[in-house]
Amino acid sequence: MNKLKKLSGNPHLIKKDGKLLIGGIEASEILKNARTPLMIFFAKRVKNNINSFCRAFQSVFDNFQCFYSFKANYLPDICRIVLSEGVGAELIGLPELKLALKLQFPSEKIIVGGPYLPQELIEKCILENIKEIVVYDLNDVNLIDFIAKKHKKVQEICLRLNSQKFGSKLGIDLDEFELTLLKKIKNEYKNVKITTVLSHYSTQMNNFEQFKQNLINVLEKIKILVRAGVRIENINLGGGFPEAAIMPELQLIEIAKKIKLILTNFDIKFENIYFEPGRYFVGDAGIFIAKVIRVYKDRWIFLNIGNHICPKFAKASLRFYNITRINDPHKYKASIAGIVPTDQDVLAKNYFFTKKLEEGDFVMITNVGAYCLTFSNRFPYLLPEISLIEDGNITQIFDPLVHHDFSLN
Ligand SMILES: Cc1ncc(COP(=O)(O)O)c(C=O)c1O
Which protein residues touch ligand 1 with a CB less than 6 Å away? Predict the structure, then answer.
């Protein structure tokens, strides 16, 4: 009988006739010569996620633009796939900017900015005709104007608004002091033009209420800006979507429609609406395969991976499968620890897993494509090998013994 079962809501993880297929390749084949921990990405999943996202928002907005947030996963091979789907790039600093330009993202599809805008970064943005520089602090505009003037250019600016969530310290509140500064910018700085506002609210936003809070905040701030004589052309609502396996396209369409309704009722004129998702594109496009290195008391197991490469900070929706015993029911609680020598290195507690637990069992962890590598740290273990499955072939894209590190420079 041809029994197919999708694991973790991921069409690239299929159980067929009792065998696990990873990106169409039998898991046993992948594991035959593999060193663990191993990370695998599915090119097709990245492409499909991008297409779902863009289709959903384009079906509701005719003025939608999309920029991939590189910080979610800045591996050059992943960013190359993103580029091939025609979306733009949202970047935080110079190493990412150099990568995006090397990959030939068009400059009119690149947005750069963050809480730290060193002079070298601003200079590069202006010289390369980057679409917008995102400013988290109005005091940064002075230097942008100065450098733009030097190069006889007018740089478009996006204001990162404070999302007003839990007293966030990121972004501009538009208090009286800032409004005074804004008037000065408007009247005196001739080489910058404020065109866009951005508000990114949170991560893993699963209910519309969070999207609504974000939008209301932006609209309130636009009202203040209009009163101060600043006309906004574009609204950027940031990212914050969960993994695509968790939020299907239909749900995205619902969110898009509700956003549109609020915008229509608010009766505000703007030209474009932007989003800058990271996790949605890549979160469920990556998995880890690790090994059980120890079975401890009370159904605790230790894996040869830990929070140094699968960090809590990534806020990923982790799912665990014992792929050595993939046909055994996963309904017996186990707790999973990592190899960082601290009791804090817990990957999951009381997680439904197989009854039998043995040293050497292979464990698959899903939804690790976003932020795990970004937030990984230099604990003195070997980094994982990374492979990419693309067009039915598996190719190693990072070998820690050869490449040593995947940091950007
Ligand atoms: C300004 C901004 N835009 C976009 C993103 C991407 O968010 P996500 O990966 O949750 O979609 C982030 C993430 O922190 C962000 O700070």
Answer: 69, 72, 90, 200, 203, 238-241, 276-280, 370
